[in-house]
Amino acid sequence: MKGRILVIDDEKGQREILNTILKKDGYHVVDVPGAREAMERLDKEEFDIILTDLKMKGLSGMDLLDRILDENPNQCIVMMTAHGTIDSAVEAMKKGAFDYLEKPLEKDNLLLTLRRALDLVNLVRENRVLQKRLEETQKIPSIIGAHPKMKEVFRIIGKIAATSSTVLICGESGTGKELVARAIHEGSPRKSNPFFAINCAAIPDTLMESELFGHEKGSFTGAERRELGIFEAAEKGTVFLDEIGELNTAMQAKLLRAIQEKEIRRVGGKVNIPLDVRIISATNKDLEQEIRKGNFREDLFYRLDVIRINLPPLRERGSDIATLADFFVKKYGSDTAAPVRGISKPALKLLMNYSWPGNVRQLESVIERGVLMTESDHIQPEDLPEEVRREHAPSTSLPFPFPPEGISIEELERDLIIKAMERAEWVIGKAAPLLGMTYKTLQYRLEKFGIEKPEKTTSAGV
Question: Are 199 and 167 in contact, with CB atoms under 8 Å apart?
Answer without folding.
Answer: no
